[in-house]
Amino acid sequence: MGQTPFYVSSLPNSPVGPLSVVVQDGAVVRLEWSVVGGESDPVSTEAVAQLTQYFAGERQVFDLPLSPRVSAFQVKFGTALCAIPFGETRTYGELARDMGVPAQAIGQACGANPIPIIIPCHRVLGANSLGGFSGAGGVEGKVQLLRHEGAASLLI
User: Given 8, 21, 121, 124, which residue is catalytic?
Assistant: First the structure.
């Protein structure tokens, strides 16, 4: 038996660089920081439409089926990230306390997030720093996303 196919739709000129949404079995499995060739499907097309709306300031919450290929903890963590409202942030420590895990586990889960932006790991900051970012461009990309969401006052 073969693996089910992947479908891809791309947003070549987003404010944070080229993006491609990868879908398998009707759900988003990852976001790539490049233009990836391939056949699109309705979910990948909708994901690009929602990202376009997000960057245009017309969308604050994504409504897409997500199926990142991650551990059970990371799925729970992704749910916690998606609960952080647009334009707001949490610290690694706050999320660690809420989830009953060490802050290091939160940092590792952020770094392993295969669907940044849609699962908003950019909204998680260190207690005294920006922390890292799993998307291309690293912290600079995180800063762009936080500015886009009006959270730039936190960066001063």
Answer: 121
